[in-house]
Write a structure and sequence with these properties.
mainly alpha; Rna Polymerase Sigma Factor, Chain: A; Arc Repressor Mutant, subunit A; 8 helices; transcription regulation
Length: 187
C-alpha cells in the first residue's frame, strides 16, 4: 500500500509539471471509483460519465492546488460531488418559456450562406487553425480527429489505441486550452 501511495504522489508531482503519462495514470487509477460514486447518485450512466469527465478535467486544471496532506481520491470525490450538486442546482433552475413573438423557433431564415458569409467562415477557419497549431501535438491530433475528420469517440479509441475515458478527458482539456489561447488573442 505504501508503494501504491508513493506512485500516486509521484504521478501527482509529475502531473503538476505537465507530464501527460502521469495524467493518464491518475485517470486510469481513479476513473472507476469516481464513476461509481456519481453513478450511485444519479442512476444514469451518461450523466455519471459526463460528471466524471468534468471531474478529471477540473482536477487536472487545478492539480497545482492539490494538498498532499490529503488523499487524492478524496479530493477527486469532493470535486465530483460539487460538480454533481452544481448540476442538480442547474436542473432545478432551468425553466422553459415560449414567447411566440420572440421565439427562435418562429424565425425561419435561409440556410445558404452568402458570399460574404463564406469569406468570413474561410478567414475564421484559417485563424482557428493557427490557434490549434499553438497546442501540443497530441491535443492538435485529438481536435483534428474529432472536429475536422468528424470521427466518433469509438473510431478515436481505435485510431489512438486509448481508452474512451482518456480520449474524452483529453478532448475536453484540448478544447479548454484552445479557448484560453483564443481568449488571450482577443485581449
Amino acid at each position: 500500500m505504501v508503494k501504491k501511495t508513493e506512485n500516486i504522489i509521484d504521478s501527482i508531482n509529475k502531473a503538476k509539471q505537465g507530464d501527460e503519462t502521469s495524467y493518464t495514470f491518475l485517470l486510469n487509477m481513479f476513473w472507476k471509483d469516481i464513476y461509481r460514486f456519481i453513478l450511485n447518485k444519479t442512476n444514469d450512466e451518461n450523466e455519471a460519465e459526463d460528471v466524471t469527465i468534468r471531474t478529471f478535467s477540473k482536477a487536472f486544471d487545478k492539480i497545482d492546488t492539490f494538498d498532499e496532506n490529503y488523499e487524492f481520491k478524496t479530493w477527486l470525490l469532493s470535486i465530483a460531488n460539487n460538480l454533481f450538486i452544481d448540476q442538480l442546482r442547474k436542473k432545478k433552475t432551468e425553466t422553459i418559456s415560449i414567447d411566440k413573438k420572440n421565439s427562435e423557433a418562429y424565425k425561419i431564415e435561409d440556410a445558404e450562406p452568402t458570399p460574404d458569409d463564406l469569406l468570413i467562415i474561410e478567414q475564421n477557419l484559417a485563424q482557428l487553425l493557427a490557434f490549434i497549431k499553438q497546442l501540443k501535438p497530441h491535443y492538435q491530433e485529438i481536435i483534428n480527429l474529432r472536429f475536422f475528420q468528424e470521427m466518433s469517440y469509438k473510431e478515436m479509441v481505435i485510431e489512438l489505441n486509448e481508452p474512451m475515458s482518456t480520449i474524452k478527458v483529453k478532448l475536453l482539456r484540448a478544447k479548454k486550452l484552445l479557448a484560453e489561447i483564443i481568449n488571450s488573442a482577443k485581449s
